[in-house]
Every structure is written in C-alpha cells, then in structure tokens.
Design a protein that fits this description.
By secondary structure, the protein is an all-alpha fold. It is built from ten helices and no strands. It has helices at residues 2-18, 24-48, 51-64, 69-81, 85-98, 107-115, 122-130, 136-149, 152-165, 170-185. α6 (107-115) packs antiparallel against α7, α6 (107-115) packs parallel to α8 (136-149) and α8 (136-149) packs antiparallel against α9. It is elongated. The N and C termini lie far apart (64 Å).
Length: 187
C-alpha cells in the first residue's frame, strides 16, 4: 500500500510541479493514467475486501479533484457502507461548496438528507439548483420533500417546472395529479 500511495503521490507532485510547463493535452493523458491506475487498484482491493484502503484511495481522488462528482459520490457511498455518516455528509458538503456554479453540486447532500427523512433540509439546497436546470432527480426529491412537509403548492410548482422540461414523464404527471388531488381534498 505504501508503494502504491508513494507512486501516486509522486505522480501528483510531478503533475503539480511540471504541470505549468507541460502542455495541457499531455497532462490530461497523465491524469487519465493516474486515475485509471487508482480505479484498477481499488477494484483489486474490492475483490480482497480491503475497504479501508479503497476509502483511503477515494479520499485521495476526492482531495485531488473536489470538482469530480464521481469521486465525491463514490467516496460518500463507501463511507455510508461502513456507517460513517458524518464523514459522508462532510464529503457532500465539501463537494457542494467547491462547486457553487454546478447545477448538480447540491444533489448528493440533498439526497443524503432525503434518505434520512430530514425533508426540511432539502428545499434550501435544491431550490437554487432548480434555476440551473439540474438532473431530473433534483426536481423529484425536491417535490417529494415539499409533499412530505405538507407544502403542497410548492410541490405542485416543482412538478410543473419539471414537466415543462420533460413533458413526456408519465410518473411526474401522475405525481402532479396526486398533489393536485391532495390540494383539492385539503380545501
């Protein structure tokens, strides 16, 4: 393990040191080689059941590139598997804070809260991302969170916004109908 991390650290250091003098294409190739080697090593450790080493490798990947959605969510997933929920949440928060212009940046953290049934924490995270046209799942968990909170007009608004972008989503149409029926029944 020390040798693997030593090799990776040397490659990362070389990238940082020489990255400004080497053309970008070449650095991209080197980055891909480093990344692929780390993924291959993680797969080998997975087969051996050596999850602590995988998590350490994933931390390194995430620290090296806090803008990488896959690095953040893979690390969070592994941390959740060993019930390190505080660390999982910290990864998602760091990812969101590191990527303020990314429409997907708040999704992992919002989904974490949604899965924990902390519905009130979801809207502050996802309302801003809805303006940036995120993945459909952001709309879905935001609308469902509003529904769980009893904020039916907000749930309706989010389903309608989603359906303007995805008018053929039958499940979303059905969810909107359910919300409209709840609103009608509550009068």
């Amino acid at each position: 393990m020390r040798r693997t991390f030593g090799i990776i650290a040397a490659l990362v250091l070389a990238q940082i040191t020489f990255g400004q003098t080497v053309e970008k294409k070449r650095m991209d190739v080197i980055n891909d080689i480093i990344y692929n080697r780390m993924v291959d090593q993680s797969d080998a450790w997975w087969e051996d059941g050596d999850y602590p080493r995988i998590i350490n490798m994933m931390w390194l990947l995430f620290i090296a590139n806090p803008n990488d959605y896959e690095a953040a969510t893979n690390l969070g997933w592994m941390l959740a598997n060993i019930e390190r929920y505080d660390d999982e949440l910290a990864v998602y928060v760091k990812y969101r804070v590191s990527n303020p212009n990314n429409a997907e940046a708040s999704f992992p953290e919002a989904n974490f809260y949604f899965q924990k049934k902390a519905y009130a924490k979801v809207p502050p995270l996802l309302e801003a991302s809805i303006k940036k046209s995120p993945h459909a799942n952001s709309y879905r968990i935001l609308a469902h969170s509003y529904d769980k909170l009893g904020l039916l007009q907000d749930a309706k608004r989010v389903w309608q916004a989603y359906l303007t972008k995805n008018p053929n989503d039958e499940t979303a149409k059905n969810n909107l109908k359910k919300i409209e029926a709840k609103i009608k029944d509550s009068r």
